[in-house]
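Narrative of accomplishments. A recurring question from our advisory board has been how the design workflow behaves on a single, concrete structure rather than in aggregate. To address it, we present the structure tokens for one chain from the evaluation set, followed by the sequence designed for it. No filtering or post-editing was applied between the two.
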């Protein structure tokens, strides 16, 4: 079940993740949608990486913030598992005022590095001082992923 929480009541680790997602959103490049998304992912090795959406003129080559954050974590730390990801999205010049959950494409990408752990946390900023929290198991039930192909990521 999705829970609403005050950002100041989160663990230091999760507060830091939310802050980095907010920072990453400032670097987004969405000239077509004008919808700025930032993400920050916590690796199981303690590493954190940021990502933002990057849109391109052919539209289909757009990178989503969650994917950029995870790919950047892998580029720095190798194919590690993840513990949590924070996301924030809102149009330019608007404060985030609604939960932005990962799209279907990103849910699959997140699951790929969860190493089968359905409890990986997904936090989305809903206002300047609140987040909603869910898990990949809730957002991506009956998932398809590496386990279906008998693969262990990072092994
Ligand atoms: N977007 C993300 O970065 N992550 C998501 O999971 C949802 C959508 C971006 C893609 C596009 O640049 C903009 O938000 C509007 O769809
Ligand atoms: Zn997405």
């Amino acid at each position: 079940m999705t829970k609403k929480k005050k950002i100041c009541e989160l663990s230091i680790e999760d507060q830091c993740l939310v802050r980095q997602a907010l920072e990453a959103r400032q670097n987004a490049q969405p000239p077509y949608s004008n919808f700025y998304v930032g993400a920050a992912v916590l690796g199981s090795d303690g590493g954190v990486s940021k990502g933002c959406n990057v849109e391109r003129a052919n539209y289909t080559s757009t990178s989503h913030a969650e994917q950029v954050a995870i790919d950047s974590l892998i580029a720095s730390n190798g194919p590690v598992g993840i513990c949590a990801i924070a996301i924030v999205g809102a149009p330019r010049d608007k404060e985030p005022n609604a939960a932005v959950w990962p799209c279907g494409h990103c849910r699959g990408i997140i699951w790929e590095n969860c190493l089968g752990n359905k409890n990986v946390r997904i936090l989305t900023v809903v206002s300047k001082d609140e987040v909603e929290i869910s898990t990949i198991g809730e957002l991506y039930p009956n998932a398809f992923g590496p386990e279906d192909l008998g693969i262990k990521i990072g092994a």
